[in-house]
Amino acid sequence: MEISGLNIKYLSGVGDKKAAILHEELGIESYEDMLYHIPYRYIDRSRIYTISELNPQLPYIQIKAYIRDLKPVGAGKAARMVATAYDDTGELELVWFNGFKYLASQIDAQKEYLIFGQPSSFNRKLNIVHPEINPFEKTSPLLVGFQAVYPTTEKMKKAFLNSKAIGKIQESIFKSINGKIPETLPAWFLTKYKLIYLHEALFNIHFPTSPEMLQKAIFRLKFEELFYIQLNILKMKYKRKTVFKGCPFTSVGAYFNNFYNRYLPFPLTDAQKRVIREIRQDCGSGKQMNRLLQGDVGSGKTLVAVMCMLIALDNHYQTCLMAPTEILANQHFDTVSQMLKDLGITVALLTGSTKKKERTEILQRLAAGNLQIIIGTHALLEDVVAFNNVGLVIIDEQHRFGVAQRAKLWHKNNIPPHVLVMTATPIPRTLAMTLYGDLDVSVIDELPPGRKPITTLHAYENKYKEVFKFIEQELQKGRQAYIVYPLISESEKIDFHNLEEGYDKVNEYFLPRGYSCSMVHGKMKAVDKDEEMRRFVNGETQILVATTVIEVGVNVPNASIMVIESAERFGLSQLHQLRGRVGRGAEQSYCILMTSYKISNDSRKRIETMTSTNDGFEIAEADLKLRGPGDIEGTQQSGLTCNLKVANLGKDALILNEACRVAGSILENDPDLIKEENAVFASQIKRLFKTKINWRFIS
Ligand code: ADP
Ligand code: MG
After folding, report:
1. Ligand 1 centroid to residue 297 C-alpha, Å
2. What is the rounded distance in angstroms from the CA atom of residue 230 to the CA atom of residue 221?
3. pLDDT tens-place string over residues 210-234
4. pTM above 0.70, yes or no
5. What would the mean pLDDT of 301-307 be, rounded to a whole number?
6. Among 105, 138, 117, CA closest to 58
7. If you measure from the C-alpha of residue 553 to the centroid of ligand 2, how many angstroms do you get, rounded to a whole number?
8. Structural contact between residues 574 and 568, judged by C-beta atoms closer than 8 angstroms
9. Index of the ligand 1 atom closest to the CA of residue 269
10. Distance set, CA 93 to CA 100, 118, 122, 125, 136 (Å)
């Protein structure tokens, strides 16, 4: 029986209306969708607590107690019913905000009750709000053990689709299919890895028969989910490595060696050395390289890029470096030209602002093979840009580019060029394995020596005068400062207003003290923006008031203060990127996170993370835990989603590692999954991943 083909609307108790809401709210249509709507937690009804054991940190629990003094208190909106529950060890308050009449008829002072709910505290008194109460002797055996709690939405609750109702639907599914759920893993595999059957796992995840079975069910489902993702990704990786040839970079020659021996601006860090070696080996293998280079802001990715470009030149290939903004492309062009100026290498810059005449000339030289390195923006992707023989493409700040754009680069050579994608957005390892499992990953996990860690502070916005004063002290030492305002697209007008207001406030304070400001924001014309940036870069202005346009890549080593206004409105990785704009020189740098007084718990955690660590990977892990993988910056723009139903990349790293290892060992013996014993895998992969575009080949 195909449970994916059975529609839940025909189940008893569901019907058209509820089915429509389940579809709208959760995307659930079939029995299978519903069975994979997994409880997000379980209520432990396996034991009874005593009142003295309770504290507000506990989850939902149950106690056995008598109830006395049921009475109404308060009026209007605060009207409520309270009562005291007591056992031999103590007492606590029970509170209800509705259903008063029904309550009064339910409670009998002579009887003992099983009281169920979450302890909290109010006015330092322990209470349970809206407890579920059942006379103790009537407690059915069903209420003892684990009970599933399902995610629901407001709309669902209004349509009587609360957690309990979902449980009922799950129950009718099991009744109607009579335990027959087709197995999705081969029998030998279940035995080898000690996994329970799918039908057992799905039943126990909804109706745990024991804590042990619940654990086994969770493990089986998580393991399977991660295993198939890994199997699919790794299968494609094997294929790419066997099907596509790459430009063979067989040797390292004069350009590389000359630069390394004579012009290297500073000794490479060990991490830079290791990464260059990895890239060199990969490009020399005869296979096409598809590599992600992760390195925190300021870790020195540009130098690595330059040295890899030299390897391409040594093997008589052209190479290009693409950046997401003009400012960045210009900056790269300056850095690279400066580093290579004595090596007799031809370098050109191509952006949207390149004049027509110059552009024509550049394009001619590029096509004729008289230009070795080209640096630019999206302009490089245009069809008119044709290379003579491009062997290596480097893309900086990867998450700004979409898949389709990267694909274009592939076609700029007969043999696809090697691709190196550089990103400063650290991605937790589990996420990288899942999203980029087919890419090889190199990590620069070390900053150049002598960097002073940035000091990060949190300040409430009413303290802005003190903050300004602090900025002033730094400016007096000859430093520069950034002040950043958030920009949220749906309220652009308000944001712009905030920015201008902020700009006025800053000017009002600093102009009379002899300091001047630049301002840049996304709505400005590129020329104006560049002019304002130029003034700041050259030190004509001391303060740059900006929206997040400065997030990526801007390099002004003299800037030592970053103030982020309304920091609670930024995501963790964005805060980290912004902070990375300072701490680039020899001076002690500061990042000040300004927030309003009232901020959410999650915002507070983000701010705490920022003030406690400078480590991008740690921050990325925290981000993953706080937000879940679907929202991690960069995953959406790059066209990747990672919708896991059961597993959680923030928590299941160990299972993921094991799933990856197992998938690898299967592919090693049967890369195309054509052996009989692997037939189930092949058909599952086809079924699970049929709708996804095969973007991995082109990333
Ligand atoms: P990112 O990885 O953020 O792109 P950059 O390549 O811009 O970092 O490098 C940041 C700064 O560190 C630059 O000023 C660069 O000159 C410097 N730098 C890079 N590598 C080293 C090194 N090995 N030793 C000292 N400074 C370095
Ligand atoms: Mg960079």
Report:
1. 9
2. 14
3. 878 888 999 999 999 999 989 988 8
4. no
5. 96
6. 117
7. 5
8. no
9. 23
10. 16, 12, 10, 8, 19
Write out the two tokens for 130. 């809206």
What letter would DSSP give residue 269? P
SS3 state at 159:
coil
HEC letters along 442-476: EEECCCCCCCCCCEEEEEEHHHHHHHHHHHHHHHH
Instruction: Say how far residue 530 (Cα) sits from the centre of its chain.
Output: 31
Which domains, and CATH codes, for the chain?
1-41+148-178 (1.10.150), 47-143 (2.40.50.140), 254-444 (3.40.50.300), 455-613 (3.40.50.300)
Rounded distance, CA 435 to CA 425, Å? 14
Residue 519 near residue 545 (C-beta atoms within 8 A): yes
Strand-strand pairing, 440-444 and 290-295: parallel
39 in Cβ contact with 67 (< 8 Å): no
Q: Dihedral sign for Cα 456, 458, 464, 466, please.
A: negative
Nearest in space to 461 (alpha carbons), one of 598, 606, 608: 598
Would you call 297 helix, strand, or coil by DSSP?
A: coil
List all residues whose CB is within 6 A of at least one atom of ligand 1: 266, 268-269, 272, 295, 297-303, 424, 448, 555, 584
Neighbours of 232 (CB within 10 A): 21
Which ligand is nearest to the Cα of residue 325, counting in written order? 2
CB 595 within 8 A of CB 458: yes
Look at ligand 1, atom 25, and give the residue with the nearest C-alpha: 448
* Tokens representing residue 252 in the block: 């390292």
Output the DSSP codes for 322-367. E-SSHHHHHHHHHHHHHHHTTTT--EEEE-TTS-HHHHHHHHHHHH
Q: For the chain, state the CA radius of gyration.
A: 31
Summarised one tens digit per residue, pLDDT across range 350-395 is 998 899 999 999 999 999 999 999 999 888 888 889 999 999 999 9
**The residue type at 565:** E
Residue 285 exposure: Cα atoms within 13 Å on the Cβ side = 16
pLDDT at 347: 97
- Structure tokens given for 15: 């019907």
Instruction: Please state, in angstroms and as integers, the Cα–Cα distance from residue 50 to each residue in 54, 605, 636, following that order.
Output: 7, 33, 48
* Angle at alpha carbon of residue 677, lines to 674 and 681, rounded to 5°: 65
